[in-house]
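ok new one. same drill as before - structure tokens go in, u give me an amino acid for every spot. 374 of them this time. try not to just spam alanines like last time pls lmao
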């Protein structure tokens, strides 16, 4: 915003530069060509009244300079004035064309935002005692949604969660995300346990791949974490299907990577064979936060090619954050994590990032010791 405000002074600076050049050079040297650049420079930077004002100012400055030099005549005076007028009109037309394009871009972004909300709705900030925060960081500024997904649902069997990453890019990936989320929402309510939920997901994705045919049938798959919180939130059960394992932050800010007891392939590959998938259970004591994310986080590299390690870096961030302020909320934890990934990569986002933080409050203490509980 500051740079944009400063850029608005460029047309006026061009006029000032033209005056300096004209006064510093012999009378047979004219700065009219530089003055003509001022309205053109104003076209993408200023609103319509500003462009007209710059054009009129350039014409007035040229007339004064030509009068001072004694060169205001048909060849170098009136002709240059007419040229400045024509350039100003051209700048106005350019500005109108740019405004139309910007309006179309804004409408497209609004449509994309609505589509993102429909395809990937933001989870509620709270389900029972469970506190929830979600963030989606696209690899490209123009893209609002890609092939990463998260979904949180309260079911008759407890709170169930899915974080995944579908194969592919573009509209095909968005279509696969819709299919995954739809299948999960149905299966999460119906399945008695995680084994039944994952089996139902496999069948749904296999049917969807068959309907699409071609490469989607042969190679379509989704890496996924399927998570279930037991009643009372004392235990979290996880099925990991080829996805980066989540990180559990305890009440002291220490991190533990919840590795699966047995590796399993991604969802959607049942046509190639049957593989067992364990349901791993982990304690989820008060004050804990479960962080789930896609490989846009784990595969983020620095200039030396070193992968980002949230389990190592995040506890340091939380200790620093706790030392200078209140313990971070789940949303603030995700913000710290996203900022740190950006620092690690030098601001080069290499892949979409979908992140989910699920926190169980500790009613008896602050999430991280060292600060008084308010």
């Amino acid at each position: 915003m500051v740079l944009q405000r400063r850029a608005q002074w460029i047309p006026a600076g061009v006029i000032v530069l033209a005056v300096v050049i004209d006064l510093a050079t012999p009378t047979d040297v004219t700065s009219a060509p530089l003055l003509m650049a001022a309205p053109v420079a104003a076209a993408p930077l200023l609103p319509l009244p500003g462009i007209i004002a710059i054009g009129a100012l350039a014409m007035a400055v040229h007339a004064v300079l030509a009068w001072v030099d004694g060169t205001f005549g048909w060849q170098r005076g009136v002709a240059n004035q007419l040229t400045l007028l024509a350039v100003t009109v051209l700048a106005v037309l350019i500005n109108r064309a740019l405004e139309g394009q910007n309006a179309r871009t804004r409408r497209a972004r609004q449509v994309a935002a609505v589509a993102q909300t429909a395809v990937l709705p933001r989870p509620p900030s709270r389900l029972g005692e469970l506190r929830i925060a979600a963030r989606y960081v696209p690899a490209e500024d123009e893209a609002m949604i890609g092939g990463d997904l998260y979904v949180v649902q309260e079911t008759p069997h407890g709170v169930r969660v899915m974080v995944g990453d579908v194969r592919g890019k573009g509209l095909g990936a968005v279509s696969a995300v819709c299919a995954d989320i739809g299948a999960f929402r149905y299966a999460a309510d119906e399945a008695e346990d995680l084994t039944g939920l994952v089996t139902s997901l496999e069948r749904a994705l296999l049917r969807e791949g068959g309907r699409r045919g071609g490469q989607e049938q042969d190679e379509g798959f989704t890496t996924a974490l399927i998570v279930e919180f037991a009643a009372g939130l004392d235990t979290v059960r996880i099925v990991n299907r080829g996805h980066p394992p989540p990180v559990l932050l305890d009440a002291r800010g220490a991190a533990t990577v919840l590795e699966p007891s047995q590796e399993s392939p991604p969802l959607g590959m049942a046509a190639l064979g049957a593989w067992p998938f364990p349901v791993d259970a982990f304690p989820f004591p008060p004050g804990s936060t479960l962080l789930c994310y896609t490989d846009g986080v784990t595969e983020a590299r620095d200039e030396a090619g070193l992968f980002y390690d949230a389990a190592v870096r995040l506890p340091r961030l939380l200790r620093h954050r706790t030392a200078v302020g209140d313990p971070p909320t789940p949303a603030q934890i995700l913000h710290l994590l996203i900022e740190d990934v950006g620092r690690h990569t030098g601001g080069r986002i290499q892949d979409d990032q979908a992140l989910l933080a699920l926190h169980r409050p500790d009613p008896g203490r602050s999430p991280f010791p060292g600060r008084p509980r308010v």
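The longest helix spans residues 74-119. and btw Residues 2-113 form one domain.
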